[in-house]
Structures are given as structure tokens and as C-alpha cells.
Specification:
Helix content is 24%, strand content 35%. It contains eight helices and 20 strands. It is globular and about 75 Å long.
């Protein structure tokens, strides 16, 4: 296990500034997920830590040792890529043992490490097979096993589930979570999938345009987003947003919202203090809307999705704003029907 520290980390490709002044601390044994939309810089940041890209400026330390001038093989890291990158002519055993053989590790120790990793990943019966005889999930487990045998200070995962189908994604995600619990190693994981981020992470780093938007635990970011971007990115379906103005703002904690055919009092204010009359956005998660004939939020259903575990309704209100409701109940609502909703102001946010 090792602590990873980033101080004022910047990366530019020519005139394009892709990583901007990032400061970040990842503690020993933490599982940290970098998440954000495509092009936000999350994979580039991971590659900077791995040594696959050179810094433009800043400091990266692993286990209290600055590593900017060290090659990837000397940084104490092991990386699992989106593509499995297995040698097709080698058996699973030889794929896992290859890096150890290059390091001059004795055959006895290689056997011990590979067999131990195979037992952890429950693939002892696959060691004699070649990659062509494996499923996608099995190939990804081999790639993870190849990282485990190196006994690294830090595990790096770059979207390792992107090539798997939905069922395998879930199963492999569970395996990675169990693996982290078992090994307790510092882990940095990159994904664009907010479900993976919420279910795996001890700490989430949300990135946008090369900048850190917010760092915190999954539920901290879900319940107390620092800005509208974080609020809209985490959560499925995404948060609903309504435009309006701030009325009777009380300091920097709560305020009253008016606009978009809505009123809400004692709503959490996000960000810096705003004057009365300022244009703001009210955010409400679809799960916090409750069907209520007396509710003030009205909309016409445009689509009803019955998913078994929940019902998701897409609606449009009188001024053309689209929003969603997500209910665990099987609601008797059809497209074209007008529906009214209520919500608790303590669940809403003013941005």
C-alpha cells in the first residue's frame, strides 16, 4: 500500500491544456475513482501517475517518493487497461508470469505468485488455456491477475469493464470490489460510468475539462453536490433542473426559489452567496418527486418506462421544461396524461 500525492499537476499537448493545476491526495489503501464525461482528462491523469505520459509541470509522489523522472516499471504500480493486451500464443499462466520472468524472479516464486493470484480470482482451472479459449470476463480476470502478481504499491485501472456486456460488467465489478477488500491495496480506477463510481469508490474525483469539480465519498457527492455539473452527472436518471430567481435568500445556507411554475422555501444554497433576484437553478432528483394531485409541479407525461424495479416518467411542464420522475411503485400513468408532483424542499438544491 502507498499514498499517492499530486501537487499542481498540469499537462498540455501542444496548445491544448488538458490537465489544469490538480491537487489531490489518495491515502493508503483507498479505492479512488476518477469519473467524468469523455474528454475530461481522467485517463490522461491516470497515465501521468503511471508514467505513460510526461508532466508539463507539477509533482507526483508515490509512497513519499517523487516519481516524475522514473519509468513506469520503477514506480511501484501495476496497470489494467481497457483492452486486455494478452499475448495470444501464451497460456494464462505464462501471460501472468511474463513480467516476473523479465524481472528475473525465480521460477519457484513465479509459480507461487501466479497460483496465489489465480486462487484469488478463482481461475486455477484456466492456467493452461490460451486467451482465444476464454470469455471476455475471463480475459479481464487474467489481465487483473497479471497486475496482482507484481505486488504493486498502487493498482491502476483504466476503464477495465468497457469491453464487457452488461451482465459481465456487473459480475466483474463485484470481483474487483471483493479483490480490493481482500488485498487492501491503494487503487485508482477510471470510468465514465457513474454507477461504477458510486458502487466501487471510497472516494470519487469528478473531473470536467481537466479540472477537479469535487472530491468526496459517493453519498457526499450525491447528497451535497458542489455545483450543477456534479449534481447532473451523478445519479440515474439525472437530476431535474428548473430556471428561476432567488427570493429572500437567508445568508449562504438556504433560500427561496421562484420560477418555472414552482416555489420552494428553505432550499440549500450551493456555492457563493447570491443577492435576491439573482438568476438561479433549482435541482430536484427524479427519485424525490412524489405523485400528488395537490402538488405544485405539473407536467404532461411524454414517455413512461416500466423497468420492473422502478417506473421512470418523462414529462414536460407548461413552460416547456422537461423533467423526470422515478418511482419504485408501478404507477398507473400513460403518455399524454397530466400529472402533479410534490417534493420536500430539504431534498432540493439551488445552484
Amino acid at each position: 500500500m502507498a499514498k499517492v500525492e499530486l501537487k499542481k499537476v498540469n499537462k498540455s499537448f501542444g496548445n491544448v491544456h488538458v490537465i489544469r493545476d490538480i491537487d489531490l491526495e489518495i491515502e493508503n489503501g483507498e479505492f479512488v475513482v476518477f469519473v467524468g464525461p469523455s474528454g475530461c482528462g481522467k485517463s490522461t491523469l491516470l497515465r501521468l501517475i503511471a508514467g505513460l505520459e510526461n508532466l508539463s509541470s507539477g509533482v507526483i509522489s508515490i509512497a513519499d517518493r517523487q516519481v516524475m523522472d522514473l519509468p513506469p516499471s520503477k514506480r511501484g504500480i501495476a496497470m489494467v487497461f481497457q483492452s486486455y493486451a494478452l499475448y495470444p500464443h501464451m497460456t494464462v499462466f505464462n501471460n501472468m508470469a511474463f513480467s516476473l520472468d523479465l524481472q528475473g524472479v525465480t521460477k519457484a516464486e513465479i509459480h507461487q505468485r501466479v497460483e496465489a493470484a489465480a486462487k484469488i480470482l478463482q481461475m486455477e482451472h484456466l492456467l493452461d488455456r490460451r486467451p482465444a479459449a476464454l470469455s471476455g470476463g475471463q480475459r479481464q480476470r487474467v489481465a487483473i491477475g497479471r497486475a496482482i502478481v507484481r505486488n504493486p504499491d498502487v493498482f491502476l485501472f483504466d476503464e477495465p469493464l468497457s469491453n464487457l456486456d452488461a451482465a459481465l460488467r456487473h459480475d466483474t465489478r463485484v470481483e474487483i470490489a471483493k479483490l480490493h477488500t481482500q488485498l487492501g491495496a491503494t487503487t485508482i480506477y477510471v470510468t465514465h460510468d457513474q454507477v461504477e463510481a458510486m458502487t466501487l469508490a471510497d472516494k470519487i474525483v469528478v473531473l470536467k475539462d481537466g479540472e477537479v469539480m469535487q472530491v468526496g465519498s459517493p453519498m457526499e457527492l450525491f447528497n451535497f453536490p458542489a455545483n450543477e455539473f456534479v449534481a447532473g452527472f451523478l445519479g440515474s436518471p439525472k437530476m431535474n433542473f428548473f430556471k428561476g430567481v432567488l427570493v429572500n435568500g437567508s445568508g449562504t445556507d438556504t433560500g427561496q426559489f421562484e420560477g418555472d411554475s414552482l416555489q420552494a422555501t428553505n432550499v440549500r444554497l450551493v456555492g457563493s452567496s447570491k443577492p435576491n433576484g439573482a438568476e438561479v437553478t433549482l435541482g430536484i432528483r427524479p427519485q424525490h418527486l412524489v405523485v400528488d394531485p395537490a402538488g405544485q409541479l405539473k407536467g404532461t407525461a411524454t414517455l413512461v418506462e416500466r423497468l420492473g424495479t422502478e417506473t421512470v416518467i418523462e414529462l414536460v411542464n407548461g413552460v416547456g421544461t422537461r423533467f423526470r420522475c422515478a418511482s419504485p411503485e408501478s404507477l398507473d400513468i400513460e403518455a399524454g396524461q397530466e400529472v402533479s408532483f410534490s417534493f420536500n424542499s430539504t431534498d432540493a438544491h439551488i445552484f
